[in-house]
Specification:
Order of helices and strands of chain A: HHHEHHEEHH
Shape of chain A: globular
Largest interface: A-B, 65 and 65 residues
Radius of gyration of chain A: 20 Å
Structural class of chain A: mainly alpha
Strand order of the largest sheet of chain A: 1-3-2
Strand content of chain A: 5-15%
Oligomer: homodimer
Number of strands of chain A: 3
Helix content of chain A: 55-70%
Largest sheet of chain A: 3 strands, antiparallel
DNA sequence: AGCAGCTACTTGACATGACAACCATTGTCC
DNA sequence: GGACAATGGTTGTCATGTCAAGTAGCTGCT
């Protein structure tokens, strides 16, 4: 593959080159993720929903009619509890989610997707699938597989030990 | 806890497989970026600075003694103007940045890194470099190059078409 | 000169995202 | 059975990120 000398570099308008290959990888990763997020936001905004909200609804749809405790939703999204609570407030206000205290364990609050929420998700499936495809349309299937492998490896990797922190 | 099924998939605890390779790529990308961001945040938090703030300071350091107009900083970070203004407020309050109305064009506000800001950056260079290395330590140099190429290609891809057409 | 239009911010409002503190339940252990 | 820790949420605060609207200053055209 031809090495584009400055795709990322020119975007940042940086005078000096990257200090290291790794630094370039970090910046490429963060900027790409940011761009892809914006791309999805552009699809969702006209429907009055944000990307995190959409993800919550998808999790609830995946949970089926039994619903899910609030924090379970958060865990599946790697999000912190407080954020989930407030997001759920809004989703409930919009009528996409229903909440109910769990009779078995009254500490828990079970969250369910409402028919309205399911309907919204149904409308979004196609556009979101298309957005998925569009985001990586330039890569072949093999290249996508390779990318996934590299990203998965990065996530599994030894990132920082506490000794390295300072 | 089991140890080794499918990396990304197990994290999300999703019952069904990904609907497409592309969807898997999207999720892998977003989650990896998120994780890497958290690692940098862990390095920066003890120093009382956030990742976006750190990036602003780096841009200002790169600008040198001539400073940069507020929105120029924003452009180099792909951030919107309002966010930059407020972040700069905080950076100025912390003494890391100095602002001054441009005499030539009184609409602009030039931002400069203060010696205190420069000193902070100096302290952070090493830990941040180590964090860069650690983030991709599992990948060889060639794999990093490959990853960068794939990510760059993704960013140049068709989801940018409208913006690129002008 | 004078005014329309553009530029560079600034402010306000709202949605995340993270942390800390707090409350109600539940589980545990003596 | 009663103190106490752990669990599951909620609330408050702060920093970002984004959009919409407003303001001050500059530019071009007449």
């Amino acid at each position: 593959m031809p090495k584009n000398p400055s795709a990322t570099q020119r975007e940042i308008r940086q005078t000096r080159p990257f200090r290291s290959k790794t630094q370039e990888a970090v910046i490429a990763l963060l900027r790409t993720a940011d761009l892809v997020k914006r791309h999805f936001a552009a699809v969702l905004t006209p429907h009055g929903i944000t990307l995190p909200q959409y993800n919550v609804l998808r999790v609830l749809r995946g949970a089926g009619p039994d619903g899910l405790p609030t924090l379970e939703v958060g865990q599946r999204l790697i999000e912190q509890a407080p954020g989930i609570t407030r997001m759920m407030d809004r989703l409930e206000a919009r009528g996409w989610v229903r909440r109910e205290r769990c009779p078995g364990d009254r500490r828990q609050v079970l969250c369910y997707l409402t028919p309205e929420g399911a309907s919204l998700l149904g409308q979004l499936d196609e556009p979101i699938d298309r957005a998925d495809q569009a985001a990586f349309a330039v890569l072949t299937e093999e290249q996508q597989t390779l990318l996934i492998t590299l990203l998965d490896a990065t996530r599994q990797g030894p990132h920082l030990t506490k000794a390295q922190l300072d």
